[in-house]
Design a protein that fits this description.
The chain is an alpha/beta fold. The protein is built from 15 helices and 11 strands. The chain has 2 domains: 6-203 and 291-314, TIM Barrel; 216-278, no CATH class. It has helices spanning 6-11, 28-36, 50-63, 79-89, 105-110, 122-131, 152-162, 176-184, 194-197, 206-214, 237-247, 252-259, 262-267, 292-301, 303-314, and strands at 17-19, 41-44, 68-73, 93-97, 114-119, 136-139, 145-146, 167-170, 189-192, 220-223, 231-234. The strands form 2 sheets. The chain has an 8-stranded parallel β-sheet. Strands 7-11-10 form a 3-stranded antiparallel β-sheet, with helices on one face. Helix 5 (105-110) links the parallel strand 4 and strand 5 (114-119). The longest helix is centred in the N-terminal third of the chain and has 14 residues, at 50-63. The radius of gyration is 18 Å and the shape is globular. The mean pLDDT is 93. This is Probable nitronate monooxygenase. Pfam families: NMO. Keywords: Dioxygenase, Flavoprotein, FMN, Oxidoreductase.
Amino acid sequence: MFEENPICKLLNIKYPIFQGGMAWIGTAELASAVSNAGGLGIIGAGHMPPDILRAEIQKAKKWTDKPFGVNIMLMSPFVKEVMQVVVDERVAVVTTGAGNPAEYLPALKEVGTKVIPVVASVALAKRLVRSGVDAVIAEGTESGGHIGDITTMALVPQVVDAVDVPVIAAGGIGDSRGITAAIALGASGVQMGTRFVVSEECIAHENYKNLVLKAKDRSTVVTGRSTGHPVRVISNKMTREYAELEAKQTPVEELEKFGAGRLNLATHKGDVENGSVMIGQISGMLDEIKPVAVIMEELVSGLGAVRDRVVAFSK
């Protein structure tokens, strides 16, 4: 079906569907399952120390013989060490966020790693393409976790028009309709995080997954705009307290201290009232936990029906 797709050809994958590299829950279990199902699974390095990341990569290598990637937050205190691990392990793909990966490109390219940064603006996309990246992920504000302020619908076609490398669309994509829409906007593939959170292979706490399944269209809010690092999460006790602190113009250092450890509190300890439940706006579309292989099959098999609707509309 996707034999001539530029992303599939570039990365040697069956389907141009990435699993978002989510910190704490984008582990080897999930990444290997997505890769085995034909997509690109991605380990979320977050603030992982290098030894922990190496262990995750080696587990993924045992569980899949397909390409997989690692997402690296360039603001991580371990970024240099983590990049060296990725080079040593010859990971097929690196996606990056929160910065410019240019200084790491020579070493990554030398071992054949494809580098695909996440961008939230046309200007950043153009700058990173000039530095030599292989593709870009244009991520709209509908995404969960750290976000920009431009919607996917507006951002993707502008990035597509501005660069000469493949563009992967992300943000607000939860089913075959979203994939088709992204392709119509000019994207060569999609990245989906929220959809894979409610998979059997995702290690997120049961409470975390259940809260996502209960979410409605307006269940998420954005915190941290005053810090310059906005984050989309499900509204809960923590977000309300955070909003009160922001309204009082609390210094950024105190806000960061207040938020420290909140993601792990939710993902691993299951405290979804005091923890940070990072998730995208498509959470309101999800109502069942399924194996990754089933999710992927539904995403791909549903494309034909969506295409038929588009064709019928154009007649």
